[in-house]
Amino acid sequence: xxxxxxxxxxxxxxxxxxxxxxxxxxxxxxxxxxxxxxxxxxxxxxxxxxxxxxxxxxxxxxxxxxxxxxxxxxxxxxxxxxxxxxxxxxxxxxxxxxxxxxxxxxxxxxxxxxxxxxxxxxxxxxxxxxxxxxxxxxxxxxxxxxxxxxxxxxxxxxxxxxxxxxxxxxxxxxxxxxxxxxxxxxxxxxxxxxxxxxxxxxxxxxxxxxxxxxxxxxxxxxxxxxxxxxxxxxxxxxxxxxxxxxxxxxxxxxxxxxxxxxxxxxxxxxxxxxxxxxxxxxxxxxxxxxxxxxxxxxxxxxxxxxxxxxxxxxxxxxxxxxxxxxxxxxxxxxxxxxxxxxxxxxxxxxxxxxxxxxxxxxxxxxx
Length: 367
What we know:
The protein is mostly helical and 367 residues long. The chain has helices spanning 18-26, 31-57, 78-90, 98-116, 123-143, 160-185, 190-204, 208-217, 231-256, 260-268, 273-288, 290-303, 315-321, 333-363.
């Protein structure tokens, strides 16, 4: 009897793999798909040509004032961005002291990047650095007044510096506050439950601009005599409380998705409420709501532009402020400034979105 040998695997037909097969399945499967594909491609080509003409071919790249951007066929006025870039990043922070801001940015990146890499070691050290040392270091370096550093008032801060300070503070504070509010809303103690419900519904029922006005104007009235916070600190408190209310509802959705059997399993193991919540419930709940958490972070990052209402000049505010400079008054200055600000916001928000997708895939949230 002849010995049986398996047939070696053969590659898939060339017509079913590769880009051409993907295009046939997704772009040209039906006459309607063909029509939409052709129209979409034509629109993308047209839009791409418009952007390239405006941003590169007809743009101005060098100059000291508005005359560099006054051309028969006008495009982007990049010299305006180059001339004002320092103020877009630091605001009115003294130029001789901007090294302190750069050092804060550097230390933040050094602490954050290893924290975001799952395989990086020393996570406990990273957490202690970011939550313990870094906030104190940032406060001392930016405000000064200690260790021979010149004092810089927060009224002189502006641009990307204010945007990141407000956004990072709001993000760092909203998640733990939101978790506590979500747990409190599900508490069996009426006083805790109703307090958390009232807090969440009040802050979710008013716009952020109202919260900022209240924090800027009303908060000092509730403080003891002689105690006061500057305008930036009031905004940070308002943003943190506002975002924590939305975060609480996101976390509550994750808690409600956990089956009752998980709580019973914790009780069967002899774990108390807090250990069950910390070791069993919260890890599963937070994993389920990663998209909602990151969506709240992205919304908070974009909402930092509202601090302009109370006199703080974030990135968008400082860009708009410099539109009043007569030496750069051209028809393209406004468009160029808004495109620059939009691009910066998009980079940060897109990075958060992509990292969220990476974490979802790594944690297999769908399964």
